Amino acid sequence: MPELPEVETIVRELRPRLKGRRVTAADVLHARIVRHSDIDLRDWLPGARIIDVLRHGKFILLQLDKGWLTVHLGMTGQLRFEAPETVYTRAVLQLDDSSLLYDDIRMFGSIEAGRKRIDQLGPDALARDEWHVRLLRHKAPIKAVLLNQRVVAGIGNIYADEALFRAAIHPATVARRLSKARANKLEQLTRDLLNEAIDFRGSSISDYVDTEGRRGGFQERHQAYGREGKPCVRCASPIEKSFLAQRGTHFCPNCQRR
Ligand SMILES: [Zn+2]
To answer: 247 catalytic, yes or no?
Structure first.
């Protein structure tokens, strides 16, 4: 699933191409993509001007002169400009100078009018929001708390494992047992990690590609995720994989401490 760095990469590509454009027509080819909305996008979108393209967590936000359009790519959502329709094309936005297609093989993604879902999220992980204080309110394992989008938005399975590795925190550590200093360090290191991943245009593990169909490059730099059995870059112990919060979790049993 695309996480914050992958979605930010897409937003940075969309912004210059969409800002100032007008939607001339909207087509929804599969109704399941439109969720939590009683507004018919085919009627509502035509005529709207796009003021800006923003991101909160893993969500893309189109700021329109008449409100907001919220896009979530789910597991396999992809946005493409001027691309031919495929059997996986779920929606098409016609713009005054181009077209934007939304393809989604597994259809866990969504497009909806408004920004209701954003209001339920915690602060964006890149915001200087002191969000580590929110981690300390939870008694779940820190890995599960990092994945909880209501606590902090944008971190998924890959970057949770990478952030905890960098901070040398065992993923099963009860969040509220962390010292304030360790939690604060985790926040700083997570932000550094996400910014580095954005510089490499994100991580391509399975399906993720940007709006031009290009893969990201950060997967080559992962230190924990996907490295089970390989030597830890710090201490050479084999990286372990276990299941935590229903997700495969990669960590160094030697240098990640509770
Ligand atoms: Zn180690």
So the answer is: yes
Active site residue 141: no
**pLDDT (mean) for 164-192:** 98
Q: Does the active-site annotation cover 90?
A: no
> For 43-90, what is each residue's pLDDT tens digit?
999 999 999 999 999 999 999 999 999 999 999 999 999 999 999 999
Q: What is the pLDDT of residue 208?
A: 84
Q: Can you give the pLDDT at residue 36?
A: 66
Total Cβ atoms within 10 A of residue 80: 19
Would you call 26 helix, strand, or coil by DSSP?
strand
Among all chains, which residue has been given the structure tokens 């329109």? 64
CA of 57 to the centre of ligand 1 (A): 29
Length of the chain equals 258
What is Dmax (Cα atoms) for the chain?
59
Which residues, other chains included, contact 84 with Cβ-Cβ below 8 Å and sequence gap of 6+?
none
Closest CA to 213 of 78, 108, 54: 78
How many Å lie between the centroid of ligand 1 and the Cα of residue 241? 13
CB atoms within 10 A of CB 123: 17
> Which pLDDT does position 245 carry in this prediction?
85
Q: Give the rounded percent of residues in the chain with a pLDDT score beyond 70.
A: 100
